[in-house]
């Protein structure tokens, strides 16, 4: 995991982005948590180490990381954006009770994009699929 974080930091540096301790911590937290946290969750997790950091600092850094293509913003029905440091093509399944989000991949869905282009004449830039259900933890409660 450290090499993935280091690679991302090197990429930011090569684009002229200064690596502040907060920026490093936010990126590391996102890459290690893989739990699709909200900005508030990131803030609460890092606040003990960075007592002078504000929620605005977290949002500003997330915006910069999104612009750099290192983080995706996920907007779902609960009105709170979640952030994902896995920018590869993948899908999400969301628990309707607790809101937990898990990743999964299914490569053959790329055929849908090709078919859509053929049928509509559009140039497809991507697609998003989300599944909803009840996670194992909530089912066992």
TrEMBL record:
GO terms for molecular function: DNA-binding transcription factor activity; transcription cis-regulatory region binding; zinc ion binding. Zn(2+) binds at residues 95, 98, 135, 138. Its main location: cytoplasm. InterPro entries: FUR, Fur_C, WH-like_DNA-bd_sf, WH_DNA-bd_sf. It comes from the Bacteria. One of its GO terms (biological process) is regulation of secondary metabolite biosynthetic process. Its cofactor is Mn(2+); Fe(2+); Zn(2+). The keyword Lipid metabolism does not apply. Coiled coil: none annotated. Keywords: Cytoplasm, DNA-binding, Iron, Manganese, Metal-binding, Repressor, Transcription, Transcription regulation, Zinc. GO terms for cellular component: cytoplasm. Pfam families: FUR (PF01475). Fe cation binds at residue 127. Belongs to the Fur family. This is Peroxide-responsive transcriptional repressor PerR. It comes from Paenibacillus faecis. The gene is perR.
